[in-house]
Amino acid sequence: MNIDFLISELRKKYRTGTFHFKDPFKVLVSVMLSQRTRDENTLKVTEKLFSVLKTPRQIAEVNEKKLQKLIKSSGFYRMKAKHLKETSLEIVNKYNGKVPDTLEELLTLPGVGRKTANCVLVFAFNKPAIPVDTHVHRISNRLGLVRTKVPEETEKGLMRTVPKKYWILINELLVKFGQDTCRPVNPKCSECGFNKICPAAFKDNRRRS
Q1: Burial of 30 by CB count in 10 Å (0-12 exposed, 13-18 middle, 19+ buried)?
Q2: pLDDT-flagged residues of the chain (< 50)
Q3: How many CA atoms lie within 13 A of 180 on its CB side?
Q4: Count of beta carbons in the 10 Å neighbourhood of residue 177
Q5: Are 29 and 115 within one domain?
Q6: Concatenated DSSP letters for 62-106?
Q7: Range of the domain at 142
Q8: What is the rounded distance in angstroms from the CA atom of residue 48 to the CA atom of residue 104?
Q9: Residue 118: which of 31, 176, 182 has the closest Cα?
């Protein structure tokens, strides 16, 4: 699959720069809350949380039970509340209330893995990085961009094969493509503009990988 062609065609179909938040702390919190829940739900929960607690210090100091109640509908709310409080405290104490803007520093925050850290770099700081979620991992393998088993390998593979000028775009484009066309189950291969060059096209429209 030619990367330039892929990005060009996806940009014709999908708008980029549509992430709901720009403030680094809101981006960080929303991505942490997004784990194992739908995007629409993440947006509602994040907006509800920030209508009550607006800063890292406020989240760090709030009663954990109250925080759990605010984010309960995001799922796995106990662990998320724990990580949000710990991360907010770290940001207050170590970074003077500002979200760090390097991968190395972001990965030191409790509950922050590579996908979350890379999302913050891309969507909050406009820095080149490749966040790999389930959509990016699945589609990259289907299209033959990589041959990997886990997201960490996919990130490394894409960093080798995708020109750096596209790193900021590729997550958002592939996520939208994955939600719209290249779905986990019953992908719409007949409607896909890449079906003549995709090595996985029409092979098994019931598959879940």
Answers
A1: buried
A2: 206-209
A3: 12
A4: 23
A5: yes
A6: S-HHHHHHHHGGGSSHHHHHHHHHHHHHHHHHHHTT----SHHHH
A7: 3-15+131-191
A8: 30
A9: 31
